[in-house]
Write a structure and sequence with these properties.
With 144 residues, this protein is mainly β. The chain has helices at residues 88-95, 116-128, and strands at residues 18-26, 29-41, 45-50, 59-64, 73-86, 103-114. The longest helix is centred in the last third of the chain and has 13 residues, at 116-128.
Length: 144
């Protein structure tokens, strides 16, 4: 059989807990903002969780600060998958009769646009994540 398609490789994911902020894009510029917990990240996307409902296909600005850095990375992304589950702690409290179950929503975000300086910094951080020291902010180009 003729090889007509190129096999795409999947970017390596890193299980790094990072607090982030998602801002939905709308026709007027920016829309609602939500705090999220990043469960894993790669150079091509991230898996985040939040207590807020975000529509599938939503365009958003995703901002986060890698551990050891003070300058945030800003990425334009799109929600490409989502799942809902109950928070285990709130399930336990409900079983004890202490309240309703809080839902946690997980979203897969694909990165569509990222500044080159942010990409280089993120790449350096992720490549060194398991093996050594992080690149300090003063080695990162100034944000314009």
């Amino acid at each position: 059989m003729e090889k007509r398609f190129k096999k795409l490789s999947r970017a390596q994911r890193y299980n790094v807990q990072i607090l982030g902020k998602i801002t939905l894009e709308n026709n007027d510029g920016q829309g609602d903002s939500y705090i999220c917990n990043t469960l894993n990240v790669s150079l091509s996307g991230a898996l985040v969780e939040t207590g807020s409902i975000i529509p599938f296909g939503a365009l958003l600005k995703y901002s986060f600060c890698m551990p050891g850095f003070t300058i945030p990375v800003n990425v334009i992304g799109e929600v490409v998958r989502g799942e809902r589950e109950a928070d285990p702690e709130s399930k336990r409290r409900q079983a004890e009769g202490a309240g309703k179950v809080q839902r946690i929503y997980r979203y897969g975000i694909i990165f569509l646009d990222m500044k080159e300086a942010d990409k280089r910094s993120m790449e350096a951080y992720l490549m060194n994540w398991k093996t050594g020291p992080r690149m300090p902010d003063n080695d990162r180009p100034e944000k314009n």
